[in-house]
Amino acid sequence: MMKSKHALKKLTPYQQGKQTEEVKREYGLDRIIKLASNENPFGYSDQVKNSLSLDHGLNTYPDGHTSELRNALAKKLNVEEDQIIFGGGSDELIQIISRAFLYPGVNTVMAAPTFPQYKHNATIEGATIKEIPTLDGYHDLKGMLQAIDENTSVVWLCTPNNPTGSLIPKEELYDFMNKCPKHVLVVLDEAYFEYVETEFDSKIIEHFSDFPNLISLRTFSKAYGLAGLRIGYGIANKELIAKLEVARGPFNTSSLAQKAALIALSDDEFIEETVQRNKAIRENLQQFLKDLGWHSYDSQTNFILITTPIDGEEMFNYLLERGYIVRPVKVLEDSNKIRVTIGSEEEMDIFKDLLQHLHSSVSKEIKS
Ligand SMILES: *Cc1c(COP(=O)(O)O)cnc(C)c1O
């Protein structure tokens, strides 16, 4: 027997959303709309498209320090350059944090449901996991505080939370940070930061001097539309960043990703348009669901968690056969939920028709 970590026996590899080509073949469809991974349906900045070329010395290693992007990002965020760490998506930063802070004997606190990679990585590192159920999609911060003890190493706060879409209110976040013991690292996963309306922005990164135990994670994968290039970043105090840097691979972000992110960062207009269109389409869908009488969770993101009148898996199959890929989601014992990425106007119009159709046939069944 080879001597791998025992935890690997408890885990399975990440199940990605169904791939488009696979579904086309299986169901004989010629168009597939993927609303399963919260990607940007509007693509990414034209400036990135126009200036990326493969003429950029792919034979040499990338700049392991990510200097140019680091400089631009530090200016934009108004932080010091040594307050930033880059990762191959924030996924890799979750892995780096887990590798640096989690081990057998410590515990880690997170919401349920939340982004599955926290639990996955914590399990690999052998830490004890404490999951605190959300309250209608919102983090139960009081419950999470109560779960913290002297052996707690990391608390994961996902805001807005994936898969529920709910944002941690500003006041609650500051209150939590003030009460949270300083020996606990708080990871604030802000993968959907750009989608959060300005009035709800906690501006917590302006307060790192008060909170040396805080790191915020952001990404170019969601609003920036660069999921395929794998680049994200963490912002924290420089002492914390220096610790995490030890656990980072020397060339963990590619030269193409660095270049694309640098250009994308300067195109505020693209982000603004993405965010505005997303909001209009999301609000339209929310109103539609309300009119149908279906429950959905509050969302400050580019996805919505919907409670469906049939089981989430059934709902998933119904939509799949009609060319829409979504995610069935379990919230504690409830499996009648799907998470749906906000697609383009046209994609969502057809999606609404499909829901309407299903709604009518389910209501008929109930009446007869
Ligand atoms: C998508 C997502 C990530 C991972 O994003 P990458 O930067 O592509 O690795 C992390 N956290 C949350 C909550 C996400 O939804």
Topology:
Blueprint: H1 20-27, E1 33-34, H2 46-51, H3 67-77, E2 84-87, H4 89-101, E3 107-112, H5 117-125, E4 128-133, H6 141-147, E5 152-158, H7 170-179, E6 185-189, E7 214-219, E8 232-236, H8 238-246, H9 255-266, H10 268-292, E9 303-307, H11 312-321, E10 324-325, E11 327-331, E12 334-341, H12 345-367
Parallel strand pairs: 1-10, 3-4, 3-5, 5-6, 6-7
Antiparallel strand pairs: 2-8, 7-8, 9-12, 11-12
Helix pairs in contact: 3-9, 4-5, 10-12
The structure holds pyridoxal-5'-phosphate (PLP).
Pyridoxal-5'-phosphate binds next to helix 4.
Task: Walk me through the structure.
With 368 residues, the protein is α/β, with parallel strands linked by helices. The protein folds into two domains: 7-36 and 269-367, Aspartate Aminotransferase, domain 1; 61-266, Aspartate Aminotransferase, domain 2 (3-Layer(aba) Sandwich). It is built from twelve helices and twelve strands. The chain has helices at 20-27, 46-51, 67-77, 89-101, 117-125, 141-147, 170-179, 238-246, 255-266, 268-292, 312-321, 345-367; strands spanning 33-34, 84-87, 107-112, 128-133, 152-158, 185-189, 214-219, 232-236, 303-307, 324-325, 327-331, 334-341. The strands form three sheets. A seven-stranded mixed β-sheet has the order 2-8-7-6-5-3-4, sandwiched between helices. Strand 3 (107-112), helix 5 and strand 4 form a beta-alpha-beta unit. Helix 4 runs parallel beside helix 5. The longest helix is centred in the last third of the chain and has 25 residues, at 268-292. It is globular, with a radius of gyration of 21 Å. The chain starts with 19 loop residues before the first helix and ends with a helix. The model has no long low-confidence stretch (mean pLDDT 95). Homodimer. Pfam families: Aminotran_1_2 (PF00155).
